[in-house]
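Q: What changes when magnesium ion is included in the input?
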Amino acid sequence: MKPTIPPWLYWSWLRKWRIQEALAGVGIATGVALLFAVQVANTSVIGSVEKLVHGIAGSSKYTLVARDQQGFGEGLVRDVQAQPDVRAAAPLLMARASIATPRAHTTVELVGVTLDFATLSGRLVRSFNGLYGVRLVNSLLLPETLASQLGVGAGDEMRVSVFGREVPVRVAAVVGKKQVGPLADSPVVVGPMSFVQALTGMKGKVTHILVAPRAGRDDAARRELATVAADRLDVVPSDNDARLVKQAAGPVEQSTGMFALISMVVGVLFATNAMLLTVPERRRFVSELRMQGFSRGQMVVILLFAALTLGTVASLVGLALGDQLSRRVFHAVPGYLSFAFPVGHVRIVSFRDVAIAFAGGIVATLAATVRPLADVLPRTPSDAAYRTSEEPGEGVPARWRPWMLAAAAVLIAYAGAVLIVQPSWTNTGIIALGLAMVLVLPSVLTGTLELADRLSLRAKGGLLAIAVSELRAGTTRAIALAATGALAVFGSVSIEGAHRDLLRGLDANQSAYVGTADVWVSAGGDENSLTTTPFAVPASLRVLARSGVVAAARDYRGGFLDLDGRRVWLVARDPSEREPIPAGQLVKGNLADADAALRAGGAAVASVGLAKHLGVEVGDELRLPTPSGTMPVRLVATTTNLGWSPGTILLDGNDYRRWWRTPDVSAVEIDLNAGTSPAAGRELVRSALGPNSVLTVETAAQRLDRLKRLSREGLDRLSQISRLMLFAAAISMAAAMSAAVWQQRRRLAVLRMQGFETGQVWRVLLMQSAVVLAVGALLGAVFGLAGQVLATRWTGLTTGFPTIFSPALLLAGLTLAGVAVIALVIASLPGYAASRVSPTASFQNQ
Amino acid sequence: MLELREVVKHYQTGNEVVPAVDGVSLTVEPGEMTALFGPSGSGKTTLLLLAAGMTPPDSGAVLFKGRSVGELSARDGTRFRRSELGFVLQQFHLVPCMPAIDNAALKLVAEGMSRRAARKRAAPWLERVGLAERREHPPEKLSTGERQRVAIARALANNPGLILADEPTGNLDTSRAQEILAMLADISHGEGVAVVVVTHDHEAAGFADRVHTLRDGKLLDGTPRAASTRPVSAISDVG
Ligand SMILES: Nc1ncnc2c1ncn2[C@@H]1O[C@H](COP(=O)(O)OP(=O)(O)O)[C@@H](O)[C@H]1O
Ligand SMILES: [Mg+2]
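A: The predicted holo structure follows.
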C-alpha cells in the first residue's frame, strides 16, 4: 500500500461525512480544552511562585529564615559571612505589603536588599545593583507587569501599606524581562534595605539571609548555619517557598484535576456518539475496501490513520480552546493561596500540560473509534460485508443485559464499600459509580421503552408508539446519547454537590471563627484573611477598651509557621476567649479538657491532617520551632484544618506572646456592650482609632462576608468545571440528536407519505428526544446524588476542609431539567426542519 | 376515478431539461388494476407522484373523483393522501421495530385515531393479507414477501379509493412477486379499489385489467382488457 492511500481514502470519506466527523472532533476538543485549561491554571499558580523564588534566590543554596515576621538582627549577616564554608551571604527583608494607586491596589512581596547581593547572581540582583544608590534613594523598583497593573511609571507616587502603616513612596524605575527575566511578571517590589526597614518599622532587622556555600562544602556549610541559627531561625533550601506552595496547592489541584478528567470522559462519550452516527456507513466503507482486496492489516492502518488525523486536529483545536478558557475563565488566582504565598498573575503553559492534554485527546479519539476497528476483525471479507449486527433494534444484545446489571451491582457495592472501609479511595468509587450507571443504562432505556409502549396503548398514543419504534431501531445511538447526558449530569451533580458541601462546611467554620467577637480590628484586606499580619496595638484602642464604652477587647495573635514541609496556620486566642477551640470543628479529643489544657499553656490543638503528617496522636508531644527555640507542647485535640489545607495549630495567646517574643497582635477582637449595634460599635472603634489609622475595622458579619467571598473565589473553579461540562454536554447531545434526526429524514418522508402532518412528525421527533434525555438526565441525577456523597467525602479528605453533606436534590433536579430543556430546545429546531421533509423523498431509491 | 389529461412534467437539471412525463392522458376506474410498464427512467414514478398530488404538473390536469389534485397545498395534499390513497413501494418503507399490526394501522394514527382503536381497525386487513398470525412481529422478523403484504394492509387500512404501487415486486423473488400481484388484483376487484401498479416486470400484465407502456415520458398504447376474460393466475408476456 502506498503511503498516500490512507490520506486519500480518508479524504474521500471526509467529503461525504465531514459534519459527523467534525461533531466527533468537537467532542474531543471540548474534553482536551477543559483538561488543558485546568492544568494551565494549576501550573501557573505554582509557577509564578517558583519564578519569584528562583529569581530572588539566585545562586544561593540555603536560606536562613526568621520564624516570624518580626525578623532578626542584621548583625547576624556578619556571623554567617564569617563561616569558613560560606562563600557569600546576603540579607533580605521580605514582607507582605499592599500597594494602592489611584488606578488599582494589590498585594506584593516587599523586598529590601543590600549591596551584598552582588555576590549572589540572582536575576533581581544583577540589574538592581547597577541602579543601587543612584535612583533608589527612598524609592522602589517595580517589575513591568506590576507597574502596568497599577498604572504607574518611574517617578510616580503610590501608597505602600505594611504592618498597619501607610506611606507614600516614589517609583524609582520599572524593570522588564531584559533586566530581571521571569521576575518581570512577579508581584515583587524592591528597595534598599534601610528604606524597606523604615517602611516596615523594622529598624536593624532582616528576615532572610541567602547563603552560597563554597564549592563542594554544602553539608558543612549547612551545619555551620544551623549553629548560627541556634534554633531561633530555620535553615532551609533556598527554593523552600516553591515547595511549600506546591504542598499547599496540591489538594485543590488534585480535586480540579480529577474533575477535569471526568469532563474529559464526557468529551470522549460525545465523540463516541458522533462516531456512532456513521457506524453503518463506516461498516460499508470498510467492507467495500475489504472486498476490493485490502488486507486486515491495511485496513487497520487506514482506520488508525483516520483516527490519528481526527485526534490530532481535534486536540489542536482543544488546546487553542483551552488556552482561551484559561485566559478568560480560569484566570483568577485562587485567593486562598495568596494569603500565604506571593502568587502572581502569570499564566504559565508548560510543555507537560500541553503534552498531557494532547495525548489525552489522541487516546480519547482512539477509544471512540474502537467500534469500526472491531469491524475489521472478521476473517473473511464477506463476513464484513454481510454481517448484519447493525440490524435495527440490536443495541446491546438482550442476553448481555443481566450480566451488565450484575457488573453494575458489583461496582455500586464497591463504591459503597470504599466509602465505609477505605475513604481515601473514594475517587475510584466515583468512577465505579459512573461506570455502573452506564452499565444499567441499556436496561433502563429498554424498560422505559417497554413502559412507553404499554402507555401508548392506553392513551391516544399512536405517535408515542412510532417514537418508541424509532428509538428501538436506533438503540445503540439512543444509549450513547443518553449515556452522554447521564454522565454529564452525574459529573455535574457530584462535583457541584460536593462543592456546595465544602462551602457549607467552610461557611460554618468561618462563622464560628469570626463569631467570637462583634467587631474585628486587623491590618490590611483580603490578603490578610487568615489574620496573620502583625501590628502594634494603638494606644487609643487600649484606652477605648478600658473606658467601658465597649464590653471587652481581646488580643488575637496568629501567623504562619513552616513545619516539616508545610506552611502551617497558627491561631492564638486570648486566654479570656470564651471558645478558643471551635466546637464544630473538633475531630478528636474532649472539648472541655482541651480547652482547659490550652489555657493552662504548653498545649496545642492541631488539624487532623497535620497531626497525621507529623505522626502524632492526641496526648503526644509536638515540637514547635518558635523564634525562641523549639518548644515542646502537648497535643490535646485535633480539628479539621479550618479551611487552610496545609494545616492549622491552635495555641494559647500567652504562649504565643512569650515564644514569639512580641507585644504585637494580628487582630483585636472587640465585644460590644449590650444595646450597641455592630455598625454603631464599628464606628465607635473607628473614631477611637482616628482618621489616620489604616487598620481595618469590620463587624463580624462584614468579615464573614469577606471570608465567604474568598472561599467561593478559591473553589469557584469546581463550579466552572461543572458548568462548562454541563454546557458542553447539552450542546453535544443537541448536536448528536440533530445529526441523528437529520439521518432519519428518509423514514420521516414515509410518515409524511402516509399522511402524517409535519406537526405530527415533529412531535414524534420531540418524543424521541425527550425519552432519551429523560432517561439520561434522570439516571444521571440519581447516580449524581450518590456520587455527591463520595465526592464530598473525597474532596473533604484531600483538602482537609470541613464539609457538611446535604443531598443536592434541588441542584440535581435543576441540572436534570436544565440539560433536558436546553438539549430539547436546540434539537427541536433541526427536528422541525426535518419534519418538513418532502414525502416524495420516500420514492427515491437510495 | 383518476383522470390524467395531457399531463406534462419536466425536470430541470442544470442546463438540461428532462421531459419525465410528456403529455400523458390516462383514466383509471374503481375495481380495476392498471399496469404501467416502462424501462428505468421512462417516467413511471413521476407519473405516480403526479397522480398522488405530490408534485404539480407543468401543464395538463390531474383529476381525482372529478376534483383537481394538481395544485394541492401541503396540508390538503397530506389530507388527500391520508384519506384517499394507499402506497405500496419497492422498499416496503415500514417503520422498523414496530409490530406489523401497528405498521398497518399507521394511516389511522395519522388521522388522529388512538393506537388501540387503530390496531382494531387494521386487524381485518392484516388478516386479509394472510398475516393474522404475525401481527405482533416487527418487519425485521418478517420475510420480504410478508413485509410487502404488511405494506398492502397498510395501504388498505383507510379504505382508499386508489392504491399506487411503485415497483412493488422489485425486491421479491418470482413466486413472492406473483403472490403480491395476485393479491393486488384480487383487492382491486374485491374491494372496488383502483390500483395502479408501476413496474418493469412484465408478469404484471397477466394480472392487470389494463396495460400501458411508458417510454421517454410518452404513453405508447392503452389496451383495455376485460377483467373477466383474464384468469388471475395466467402468465402473459405482453410488452
Ligand atoms: N426530482 C427530479 N429531478 C430531476 N430529474 C428527475 C427527478 N425525478 C426524476 N427525474 C428524471 O426524470 C426521468 C424519469 O424518472 P422516473 O419518473 O423516476 O422514472 P422511472 O420511475 O420510470 O424509473 C428520469 O430521467 C429521471 O432522471
Ligand atoms: Mg421509478
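Observations recorded in class: Chain B has seven helices and ten strands.
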